[in-house]
Structure formats: C-alpha cells, structure tokens
Amino acid sequence: MAHLTLNKTKLKDNFEFLKKTFNDSSVAWGVVSKLLCGNRLFLQELINLGVDEIHDSRISNLAMVKKLNQEVQTVYIKPVSKKNVGKMIEFADVSLNSELETIHWISEEAVLQNKKHKIIIMVETGDLREGVMGEHLLDFYSDVFKLPNIEIIGLGTNLNCLNGVMPSTDKLIQLSLYKQIIELKFNKKIPWVSAGTSVTIPLMLTHQLPKGINHFRVGETLFFGVDLFEEKVIEGMHGDVFELHTEIIEMQEKPLLPVGNLAANPQGEVAEIDESLYGQTSYRAIVDVGLLDVDPKYLAPTDETIEVLGASSDMLIMNLGKNPNEYKVGDVLTFDLKYMGALSLLNSNYIDKTVISS
C-alpha cells in the first residue's frame, strides 16, 4: 500500500536551522501545521521538537494540538465563520482577524467562556486576500481595543497567498509604521508585527528584514527547506522531510502511443500524439496511488531515469524506458513532493502515514 513518511531527523535539522535563524534576529515564530491535516502522529513530532506555538486553519486540528499538549499556544489563521466562533474560542488562544463584526462575535463568546482571547489584526499590503485597508486601520483599531475580553497582540499581513505579490522591505516597513502610529495615538503597546510566512524568510537570510518585524508564521520552509524567492532548498536544510513510497502493481512492455480513436479521458484531457513514436515501446509501471490522492504534477520520482506519464483516479502510470534498473512487480518507487502534493496525501484517508529517522 502507498505510504507517506516523515523523516523526524531531517525535520529536526530544519527546525533547529530556523530556530537559530530566528533567535539570531530576535524574532519570535510559530509553526503552521495545516499541512499535517491534524495527523496526531505528525503533530506529536512537532511538539517533541519543543514547538510552543502552533498555527492552523482548521479548528479540529487545533483541538488535536490541545489534546496532545495544553501548554502549546494555538493560533487560528483564517477568518472564523459565525457558527464556529464558540469552538474557535475553546481551542484557539489567538486568532488572525480583519472583520470588525467577527471580532464583536469573538468578544461576546470570550465573555461567555470567561476567556481572554488574543487577536492579530491583519492588514492589507497588496496581495488582496484578507486584511484591513491601511486608511481604515486606525478607526478599526479604535473600535476593537475597547471590546471586552479581547487583547490585541499584533499586526500582521499575508503576501504571496493569492495573487503572488512578494514581500519587500518597503511593505514590511509600512507595516511597522502602522504599529508605531497606533502605539503613539492610543498609548497602547502592540507586541508583535507578524510579517508573514515562509515566503518572507529570504529577506531575513539576506539581512533585508526591517527591525520592527518580530514575528513569523512558518510552515512550508520548515517542512520543505525551501527559499520561495528562488524556488530552491536553502543551504543547510532538507527538502525531503516527506517522501511518498508506492508499490508497482503492474509491469509491462507496451507501445509508447495509445491505439484507437481518441476522445477525452475522465479528466477531460485528449492525448497528444507524436507520430514519430509509432512502433516504439517502453516498460510501463502502474503504482498504487492516483488522482484521488494527489495531482501527479506535485510528484518527482527520486529515480531521475523514470517519468510520470499520467494518472487515473487510483493508479499512476510511470515510464521506465528500457527499465535499466530492472524494476519488477512488488518493487517500491519513491517520490519527492511539492507542498500541495504533500497536503493532498496527508488529507487522503487511503495513504498510510509513518515516522522514520535517518
């Protein structure tokens, strides 16, 4: 059966790299765990590393974190729907917010639950997902800080999540200035300026991070070691914390081209024919994973001599060429993953998940 592995030794190396990087810059940070889809085994590995702040976009995943360790500070990182405010207050210590009416609901529920709920006000800096427009921020803050059982602990922003707008020193300085203006006007301290996510880390590594930025929310770079500016693994980190292992369930030498009248397949695709390949054959392997589990474009075989040809709902078709490595039925093919591939696999009930160490 296809299974996904998390290498805890490589995860620890990545964690220690980031921990030192943030400590050297006097920046606090939390781990975004939404990739793990609430998997108890993998969340426990995070907690074992000493992670004391976990962010997620699913309340049920934060509930699992609290079940594993009540002392971990939990952060809900998307706008909460009205019907879920109660559960969010129960399991999240902090939430990211940019909608005034929602914060009123949060305040009311926090009073009912006799809890002080902390919030980070999200500010729009150009990517046009969630966030208060800068010109409305002072009025917004004025309304929020008066609410009972609400503590504003930061200003934050998201970049590169919708339209691909990249973080820049100028945008982050702007966010820091908003904090200074609010503190002067209202005589209130805002502890955090949460600059964003993994995409902002390269600015820190190249010493371009403004001094006012003192909090990050990191997922992808922890799990994939990636510099999202240059789309490459950061030196000293690992890009293969996760790997997918699949079993060959059929192995045949077959024509390179399909035979017969062609129509759209169930995915709406029509095969393109290169007539120069008529008469040629290659070994094809079918492995036990398919579109129901992952989009093949997010998979990269660790054996660079083979390639993904396509997939149906439950099977992935591989081209082994002349099969120089003499693969056979029952052998395992291993794949490195991109973020969205790992996310799909972790969300699939049909893929086993295990922890390994190097």
TrEMBL record:
Organism per entry: Algoriphagus zhangzhouensis
Keyword Isomerase assigned: yes
CDD domains: PLPDE_III_AR_like_1
The organism's place on the tree of life at top rank: Bacteria
A Pfam family the protein falls into: Ala_racemase_N
GO molecular function, one term: alanine racemase activity
InterPro entries (alphabetical): Ala_racemase, Ala_racemase_N, PLP-binding_barrel
Keyword vocabulary terms for this entry: Isomerase, Pyridoxal phosphate
Cellular component annotations (GO), alphabetically ordered: cytosol
Full protein name: Predicted amino acid racemase
